[in-house]
């Protein structure tokens, strides 16, 4: 006779698995508060003299807001800290933990209790975006791709790393009101579904499910409902935490036509 595992044991095992993976995922996507605390200390001692308490005293660089002249990713920041920017900024012989701490403090927006999002490699992120992430099947960048989802050509100039990560991990929760999918019923009894690209006093413009740009005059509208669930699947379905950090890096590098 085959022995069946007791249901109670199975359930506990499943619960334990769920708990460890949940705990791991929060850590995988962000730096720890211990890292941020290390950064608070080191920034005050080593960087503040030149970059100021708010990180904005060097022209063209705002460390608190994550605006740099050349650096985009965490790897880039680690390089800047290790090598400096000769002759303006000296390099620092930090341990890996110390360097990670300073980067965490910068990514937390100088908030000692802030969330410090990891920002990975731009090239790998670009590959994941059009490859296994499946993002390019909905999003348009620099004139390439469909119109069904928001154009991301300058998203890196609009959003912080934390906001981008939130959109990827939990699209519905992060969805902006304008991006809510709408269903319009006209007085003539027609139904139009799609994504609003613009709305003013007189009309609503939307891209319908077939990717066509449609304008509906408001006086023709009988009802308009905006859904609160995003059509976008959470990126965790297709991507690992490292892939997601890379895609955030790629999105941050998108700054439109310069
Ligand atoms: C002696 C002054 C000085 C100190 C100390 C200093 N920096 Fe800088 N840093 C600069 C200057 C000046 C620049 C702009 C260099 C340039 O782009 O020509 C800069 C640029 C940067 C950049 C932007 C690089 C880019 O791509 O735009 C980062 C990031 C940075 N510093 C981080 C730090 C951190 C972190 C520390 C402390 C560990 C630090 N700096 C200490 C003077 C300093
Ligand atoms: C099925 C289509 C679809 C796929 C696949 C998809 N998205 Fe989206 N995405 C949308 C739609 C629709 C929105 C607008 C609603 C919202 O904000 O959730 C959106 C919103 C976003 C936003 C927020 C835009 C803003 O203005 O803040 C980002 C960033 C984003 N997507 C990136 C991605 C990335 C990266 C991937 C791949 C990992 C991806 N999307 C995959 C449809 C999609």
Strand content is 5-15%
Element-level helix/strand string: HHHHHHHHEEEEEH
Counted by DSSP, the helix tally is 9
- Order of strands in the sheet with the most strands? 4-3-2-1-5
* Class from helix and strand fractions: alpha+beta
What is the mean predicted local confidence, pLDDT?
89
The major pleated sheet works out as: 5 strands, antiparallel
Q: How many domains is the backbone divided into?
A: 3
* Gap between N and C termini: 72 Å
Question: CATH homologous superfamily name of the largest domain?
Answer: Cytochrome c-like domain
**What share of residues is helical?**
25-40%
> Unreliable stretches, pLDDT < 50, 5 or more residues?
4-24
CATH topology value of the largest domain:
Cytochrome Bc1 Complex, Chain D, domain 2
**Quick one: how many beta strands?**
5
Characterize the overall form.
elongated
Cofactors, ions, other ligands? heme C
In the CATH scheme, the class of the largest domain would be Mainly Alpha
State the CATH architecture of the largest domain: Orthogonal Bundle
Radius of gyration: 23 Å
């Amino acid at each position: 006779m085959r022995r069946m595992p007791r249901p109670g044991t199975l359930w506990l095992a499943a619960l334990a698995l769920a708990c460890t993976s949940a705990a791991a995922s929060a850590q995988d996507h962000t730096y720890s508060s211990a890292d941020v605390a290390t950064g608070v200390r080191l920034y005050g001692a080593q960087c503040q003299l030149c970059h100021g308490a708010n990180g904005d005293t060097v022209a063209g660089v705002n460390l608190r807001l994550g605006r740099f002249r050349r650096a985009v990713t965490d790897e880039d920041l680690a390089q800047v800290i290790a090598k400096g920017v000769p002759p303006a900024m000296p390099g620092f012989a930090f341990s890996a933990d110390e360097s990670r701490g300073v980067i965490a403090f910068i990514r937390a927006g100088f908030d000692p209790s802030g969330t410090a999002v990891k920002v990975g490699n731009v090239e790998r992120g670009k590959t994941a975006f059009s490859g296994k992430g499946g993002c390019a099947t909905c999003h348009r960048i620099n004139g390439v791709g469909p119109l069904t989802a928001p154009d991301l050509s300058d998203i890196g100039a609009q959003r912080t790393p934390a906001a981008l990560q939130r959109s990827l991990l939990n699209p519905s929760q992060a969805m902006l009101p304008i991006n809510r999918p709408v269903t319009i019923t006209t007085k003539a009894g027609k139904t139009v579904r799609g994504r609003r690209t613009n709305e003013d006093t007189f009309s609503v413009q939307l891209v319908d499910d077939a990717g066509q740009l449609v304008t509906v005059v408001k006086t023709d509208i009988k009802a308009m409902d905006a859904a609160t669930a995003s059509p976008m699947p959470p990126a965790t379905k297709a991507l690992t935490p490292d892939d997601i950090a890379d895609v955030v890096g790629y999105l941050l590098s998108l700054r439109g036509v310069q």
